[in-house]
Amino acid sequence: MLSVYEGFFSGGARIVHSDVVRGLAEGGQSHQVLSIHGEVHREATRQRMEDDPCYRALTAAAVGVTSLGRTAGLVDGALAANVFSGPDLAETARSMAAADVILSLKEQPLALLNQAGLPRRPVVVCLHRSDPENQGPALAELRAAVADGTVAACVCCAESTRDAYETAGIPRELLHVIPNGVDLLRFRPDPAARAALRASLGIPGPAPVTAFAARYAPMKNVPLLLRAARVWLAREPQGHVLMCGAGMTPGNPALRADIESAFGADRHLADRIRLLGVRGDMEAVYAAADVVALTSVSGEAAPLCLIEGMMCGAVPVTTDVGDSAGIVRGHGFVTPPDPEAVARAWTAAVAGRAGLAPALAASRERFSRTRMIAAYAALLDAVHTRAARLPEPL
User: Fold this and answer.
1) What is the distance between the alpha carbons of residues 24 and 379, in angstroms, rounded to a whole number?
2) If you average pLDDT over every residue of the chain, what do you get?
3) Which single residue of 57, 65, 88, 279 could bond 33 by disulfide (Cβ 3.0 to 4.6 Å)?
C-alpha cells in the first residue's frame, strides 16, 4: 500500500490517516507514505515534515516516508499550484509501481495521481470533510479520477461526508462510511495527567477548564469561540480556556487581533486564555479539561477533537456541523452559533460532567481505533482482490 499525502501539517485528517496506516502495518500489511510537500507554511506556522508528530509516529513504526521535497504556502485557502516537474513524476512513478493499492489522503493528492504516464493502480480516496465544493479544484480532480476508472472506493469518515459527496456527483456505490476512531489506551480519563498539566499551567485543581483544539482557519470560527469565552470567563472567575493547534500562538497576529476584537474593554479576562499551539500530548490536555469545545461553521465531518476529548472525560459542546450532533448525542451539548448559548452550554457541561461520565464510559467501544482499522483493512483487501482478478491490459 502507498499513501499519498499533500503534506505533513497539523489537522485531524492527517492524524486519523497516519493512525490507520500504523494500525494496518501492525496488522501485517506493507505500507509506504509519499508526501508531495516536505514543508508547508499555513496557519501562521512553518510546518516541516520531519517535525510533525504524524511523521515521527509513522517512522517509529517502521513505515517508510519519502517526500517530493516541495515547499508550499496557502494561496486563497489552498496550497500552491499543482504543477509537477519531471523528477516529481519520476519519483511518484517509482513509489506507485511498488504498490498494489494507493490511498489518497483527501482528494488533493489526485492532482498528482491523475498525471498522465503514471502506473495505473486502484486508488482509494479518504474523505474527511462535509463541503466538497469548498475544496478548490480538488473536487474536479476527484470527478476526473472517478470518470477515468482510477478510483476504486472512497472512505467517508462520516455519514455527512457520504451525503455531501453523493450530492456532488460521486456514485454512492463508491462511498463507504468508516467512522473515525481513537486509541482508547491513550485517550482515557487520567487524574495524574490532569493534575500534572494543570500544575504546569498554574491552573488550580478545582478550576473549570474548556479546551479548544483546532487549527487557525475560517471554518473553525475562532471569533465565535473567543466571544463565548469572554461571556463564560466573566461568569466563571476561576475558569480557563486552553487553545491548541497550528496558529494558536501569541505569534499569530490574526489571532491577537481576534482576541482584541472579542474582549474589548474586558481584555483582562483574556489573561485566562492559554495559547498552547501544536501539542504532542493532547491526551493530557483533554484529561485536564472539563469541556471540549467546537465552534465550526462548516467543513467538519467527524471532528477528532470531540471524540478524543470525550474519551478523556471532557464533555463535548459543539455547533451542529457534519456528524457532530450525532457524535455527542447523549454525551454533551449542541448549540447554535451564538456566544451566549455556547457559554451557557459550557457552564452546563461543567456542572453535569460527573453525571455524564457513565454515558461517556459506555460509549468507548463505539469510538475504538481497533474497529476503525479492521474496517479499513477489510475494504482494502476487497479492493486488492478485485484488482487482482482484472485481466491485464493488452
Assistant:
1) 12
2) 95
3) 65
The CA distance from 306 to 308, in Å, is 6
Query: Hey, what's the cell of 286?
Result: 483533554
User: Stretch 263-290: mean pLDDT, rounded?
Assistant: 97
Burial-class residue 391 by CB neighbours within 10 Å (0-12, 13-18, 19+): exposed
> What is the pLDDT confidence band of residue 44, given thresholds at 50, 70 and 90?
confident
Q: What homologous superfamily does CATH list for 2-181+369-389?
A: Glycogen Phosphorylase B; (3.40.50.2000)
Taking domain 191-367, whether its CATH number is 3.50.50.60 is answered by no
Terminal alpha carbon distance of the chain: 25
The answer, yes or no, to whether residue 38 has pLDDT greater than 70, is yes
Q: Which residue has the cell 508531495?
A: 36
Within 98-221, where are the H helices? Answer: 110-113, 138-147, 159-167, 191-201
Grid-cell match 478545582, residue found: 206
In the chain, % of residues over pLDDT 90: 92
Residue (of 287, 366, 371, 285) closest to 328 by Cα position = 366
Ramachandran assignment for 339, one of left (phi > 0), alpha (psi -120 to 50 degrees), beta (any other): alpha
Please tell me the predicted confidence (pLDDT) of residue 390. Answer: 67
Instruction: Report the C-alpha gap between 82 and 27 in whole angstroms.
Output: 34
Residue identified by cell 495527567 is 193
Min mean pLDDT across 2-11, 70-79, 169-178, 302-311 is at: 70-79
Give all strands (DSSP E) within the chain, no chain letters.
2-5, 32-42, 45-48, 64-73, 102-105, 123-127, 151-156, 175-177, 209-213, 240-244, 273-277, 291-294, 315-319, 333-335
At 319, the amino acid letter reads T
pLDDT at 91 exceeding the cut of 80: yes
Segments in 115-190 forming alpha helices (H) = 138-147, 159-167
- Rounded to an integer, what distance in angstroms lies between the CA atom of residue 47 and that of residue 246? 9
Distance between CA atoms of residues 104 and 255, nearest Å: 32
Tens digit of each residue's pLDDT (9 = 90 or more) over 132-149: 999 889 999 999 999 999
Which helix (H) or strand (E) covers residue 125, if one does? strand 123-127
- Write the pLDDT tens digit of every residue in 295-339: 999 999 999 999 999 999 999 999 999 999 999 999 999 999 999
Report the residue count for the chain: 394
Question: Measured between alpha carbons, how far is residue 342 from residues 242, 278, 293 in Å?
Answer: 16, 24, 9
CATH code 3.40.50.2000 region(s) in the chain: 2-181+369-389, 191-367
